[in-house]
Amino acid sequence: MRIGQNSVIAFLSQALTSVAGFVATVYIARELGEATLGVYSLVLAVVIWLKIIGGLGIQTALKKRLSEPGDDGPYLVAGVVTQLIVFVVLASVVVGLGPWLSSYLRGTPVGTVVALFALTLSFAFVTTALEGQNRVHIASLLAPADRLVRSVVQILLIVVGFGLTGLLFGYGLGALVGTLLGVVFFSVPLALPTREHFEAITGYAKYSWLSNLSNRAFASMDTLVLGLFVADGLIGVYEVAWNLASVLAVFGVAIGTAMFPAMSELSSEGNLEEVRYLFSDSMSFTGLLLIPGLVGAALVGDLVLTLYGQSFSRGHLVLVVLTFSRTVYAYEFQIVNTLNALDRPDRAFRIDGVFITVNVALNLVLVWQFGWVGAAAATAVSAVVALALGHRAVQDVVGVQLPLDEIGRQLLAAVVMGLVVAGGRYLLAPTLVTGVVLVVVGGVVYFAALTGLSVRFREVVVDNVPF
């Protein structure tokens, strides 16, 4: 299957996942309130941090080795064994920290945390293994299955009277269903690994683990720090703003997911020219939705936030800053993804190390001083620093340049869209309906303008239509 079509499938799957999550979050926010949503978000932040630490780069290393030519069976078994050992060790530490952790999570039992950790870690492992087998189109379908099951179960349990417990149960059940579906599609015959197979996994993982930690730091370090300094209600509003910003990033994530196995295989064969071409493509379209989304967030973000409830509109400034952060980090993600595919996790390790250090330090200082706006600013600044370092690294390794001309056309199309939306905002009453109408109109104007401005965009659309 072509990379472009893989990217489209991955994007549509993630878009469906985002829509399901969006609907569920709106319902949860309206029925249970921002405080319960804040506690739920805090529990998930801890669980997903445990998943990332538990992966320790094992999953990224496994994806890299499975994407290379050769026998995959021993690598898969080596990955499973290594992952189980790490899980047992980390779960024991969590149990040991039980009283303190339960208090931080507003009374959530530690057993619940460990169970969710096991389920989310398994789901991530299975998804990554499928991506390594270049079955991105199948792996992409697991996320919608997980999110649909999660959302339906959560809504049903809220209807019958369960609050936070229902939310956590639905989250775990969705991960379980996704894991079982993924295992069904495994196509690697199992085989006993040798010491060399374990060393190939751990040797790569000793660098790549920090990339996973960096992704998680970007996604929820601010949430963990907010849990120390601000009220649960503000955490709930912040997470809603973050989720809206993340919806706009799904296309860039889909591109990176589809590109990794292809670039990994090409680099193993020494075909760096084709890698450069793929890198240019991925960077050209990473901001396809994020750039106009940033303009839209600034102009009508406050109206869109009222969909969750009137009190959520106070997160407008945070939404704009987080959307900017998401845009910058999306480009940085493509760079680190390329470095890992080129078997240079050492360079990615340095970038991620700086990002995490800056992110943690700024979150602690700025949240302490400025609250949730400080958290959003810390995320933005650390993303800019990481992008600058990543650009230099990828130039050194593979000698590529950013496709600034294509990105410039997207910026110009977003400006045209912004003028139309700003005019509508000036003329129409500031209501939720106005916000929704302007989002739709803005999207139409943006893509119409981009189609007229960009030959490359037109060619990509024609090349990847399914007929």
Q: What does it look like?
A:
This protein has helices spanning 3-55, 58-67, 73-96, 98-104, 110-132, 136-159, 164-184, 195-229, 232-247, 250-268, 272-286, 290-305, 316-341, 345-370, 372-398, 404-427, 432-453, 455-464. The protein has 467 residues and is mainly alpha-helical. The chain has one domain (3-402). Helix 1 (3-55) packs antiparallel against helix 5 (110-132) and helix 3 runs antiparallel to helix 5.
Short description:
This protein is mainly alpha-helical. Helix content is 85%, strand content 0%.
Question: What is the overall shape?
Answer: globular
**Rg on CA atoms, Å:** 22 Å
Give the tally of β-strands. 0
* Largest sheet report: none
List keywords for this structure.
18 helices; 85% helix; mainly alpha; single chain; globular; 467 residues
What's the SSE blueprint?
Layout: H1 3-55, H2 58-67, H3 73-96, H4 98-104, H5 110-132, H6 136-159, H7 164-184, H8 195-229, H9 232-247, H10 250-268, H11 272-286, H12 290-305, H13 316-341, H14 345-370, H15 372-398, H16 404-427, H17 432-453, H18 455-464
